[in-house]
Amino acid sequence: MSSEQQEVAQFINKQAPFSMLQDSACSYFVNHLDSIYLTRENQTQWLNSEQPKLFLIRSGLYDLV
Fold first, then answer.
1. What is the pLDDT, as a whole number, of residue 24?
2. Rounded CA separation 29/25 (Å)
3. Cβ proximity of 30 and 9 under 8 Å
4. Closest Cα to residue 27, out of 42, 12, 47?
5. Sign of torsion, CA 50 55 61 64?
């Protein structure tokens, strides 16, 4: 699990209803997340999609690679 995934896992383990998940279910959930960086240019693609989605929003933290 990457450091980003570990941070997400720690966060969701403190939030209901995710806090009620077994460790294996939490790991599965975290390992199947897609991380995106929402920008003005791509927000329509993500926000208007018909696909089911759940957004966990984290702001103020980013790295330039």
1. 92
2. 6
3. yes
4. 12
5. negative
